[in-house]
Amino acid sequence: MLTIFVIAWLVAYNIIQPLANWIAYDLLSLPQGSHLGESLAFFFYDVPKILLLLSGMIFLISLLQTFIDTQKVRVMVEKRGEGIGNVMASLFGAITPFCSCSSVPLFIGFVQAGIPLGITFSFLITSPLMNEVAFVLLIGLFGWKVALLYLLSGITIGIISGLILGRMKLERFVEGFVYEIKPQSSGQVLEEKLTWKERVNRATESTREIVGKVWLFVIVGIGIGAFIHGFVPQDALTGIMGKGAWWSVPVSVILGIPLYSNAAGIIPIVSAMLSKGASLGTALAFMMSVVGLSLPEAVILKRVLKTPLLVIFFAVIAVSIILTGYMFNWVL
Q1: CB 241 within 8 A of CB 252
Q2: ∠ CA(232), CA(235), CA(237), 5° rounding?
Q3: Whose CA is closest to 162, among 128, 111, 124?
Q4: pLDDT tens-digit profile of 222-240?
Q5: Nearest to 135 by CA among 154, 120, 108
Q6: What is the pLDDT of residues 171-215, one digit of tens each?
Q7: Which distant-in-sequence residues (6+ apart) come within 8 Å of 310 by Cβ?
Q8: pTM of the full predicted structure?
Q9: Domain ranges within the chain, ordered by starting residue
Q10: CA-based end-to-end distance of the chain
Q11: Whole-angstrom distance, CA of residue 132 vs CA of residue 158
């Protein structure tokens, strides 16, 4: 059954491009090169392409995750001090499929468990920036090189920002009730033994759940990207978000903060922006800002963090993202 699925996936993936062109230019009789024709061809190609990539790659990643005991990782993080703990928390954040809002409860659990604040921030920062959905979409749209560089930069931002925030000794700006509830001891973690059939079933269920949550974001994001691809003049985005505009990176980060979305919704838009002349560093800094510095996250965090710490937290991440955007523009 799995072999048949793989063959069907490969066949479907390879016929997307000619099928999209046939629908746009033959079935709908739209002239090639027209704004509407280009937009629809882009839309009909990217929607099945990204959904196929998500379903295929997330299945593989979910299968690999069945070999990782996240509770055991959490206990290991609890036992590590600053430095190694930041690295482990950031890596833990990279493999957990949480957006900025859904990672907040786990962040609170870290604080309640007595894990140093800087280490908990390393997790909170990295988790929304880098997850399997973002990684798969980046591979599909930009290739392995960009995806790996983005992964490394997201983890690095989490580590460095967590270290900076930890050194500032800001625990007094955490609301007191967070420390009042002490979790049960997690000294022993039982290892779960799974058969291959159980691993495949879990990976299938995880794929169904994740794709079920993000498919609408994918379609909306690609729809916006298709409009940009077909109707926005190339010179317009080149002038605003090109390498020549030194101010484009910080402005893009500021503009991204109120535009809350997840990776599935924003990456197709970033892809269309790049096709119209936006520089890679600027576009990815915009994406990092949207998924990692959201107003909903600030509202939730305000319940557990006092205003000075919330402002410092956002400022440190914003500066880190800006520097990363400049680095991408310089390297690529």
Answers
A1: yes
A2: 65
A3: 124
A4: 888 788 777 877 666 667 7
A5: 154
A6: 888 877 666 655 544 444 445 677 888 888 888 887 888 778 778
A7: 298, 301, 302
A8: 0.67
A9: 1-67
A10: 42
A11: 17
Q: Where are the alpha helices (DSSP H) in the chain?
A: 2-21, 35-65, 70-79, 84-95, 104-112, 117-129, 132-142, 144-167, 177-180, 196-231, 234-241, 248-256, 263-275, 280-292, 295-301, 307-331
Look-up: residue for tokens 């079933």? 201
Evaluate whether 300 touches 256 at the Cβ level (below 8 Å).
no
- Written as six digits, the tokens of 23 are 């629908």
Q: What does the pLDDT look like over 239-250, one tens digit per residue?
A: 777 666 778 889
Nearest to 186 by CA among 70, 27, 98: 70
**Cα–Cα distance measured from residue 114 to residue 183, given in angstroms and rounded to the nearest whole number:** 9
pLDDT in tens, 6-23: 888 888 888 998 999 999
CB 157 within 8 A of CB 325: no
Cα angle, residue 238 at apex, residues 233 and 239 outer, rounded to 5°: 100
